[in-house]
Every structure is written in C-alpha cells, then in structure tokens.
Amino acid sequence: MRFYLDEQSQDQICAEMGLTETQFRLLKSRAKARFGELGRKALTRRHPPVKTLATQGAPTEGAVVDIDRLVPIVAHAVAVFGDEQKASHWLATPLPLLGNCSPVQVLARGGDVDGIDQILTRIEHNIPS
Fold this sequence. Notes:
Elements: H1 10-17, H2 21-46, H3 67-81, H4 84-92, H5 103-108, H6 113-124
C-alpha cells in the first residue's frame, strides 16, 4: 500500500519499518502476488470466467499475463475509483481511447500499460480526455 498507492520510496519505508532491502523486496513480492490474486477473484466474481485477466483478449489459450505489470494498474484503479468493484467494472469496460477495447483486454495482449495509467491519472485529476 505504502509503495504503490501512497508512492512512498523504498528507503523511506525501510527506515520507518526497520526493514532491510531484502526484507522489503520479499514483502513487496508477497503483496504483489496477494493483490494479483485478489484482483483476479474480484474480476471473476463480477464477470463470467471469460472476463478474467488471464483469459480476456488473450492472443492464445493459456497465455501468461505479467502480473508485475498489472498490479500497479489495478492498485491505481482501486485508488481512483475507491473500491474493487468499481475498479473492476472500469477495467472491464471498453473505452474509445483504447480503440473500444477494455483496459483488461489491452493488458492481456501485453498492451500499453503507461497509456492506461495515464487515463487513470486523468480521471483521478478530473482532466478531460
């Protein structure tokens, strides 16, 4: 939360929590895995299985999604929209800015993470697209 949502530096977090760099990396890795798991469960509950991050818009069956790229986007969406359900809905909604694809479809195809992050930032700061 502090690293991804509050955008605190690794050094600051380590100093305040008395963590070594190795301990910080381990905790961050576990948090990413847990957050990815929660995101997948939230999307699966909200939509039929075809709309999960692992399958929606995937170019081939069994495609692997790089969770390290997705976690910051999902965290940003939750921070912008205030809860998992609203973030999940936005992530699954086709957007004209993405060629009428949903952010999940774009991410599943290995698409523009920075572009989706910019859209979220614009929403967060109420900047028209």
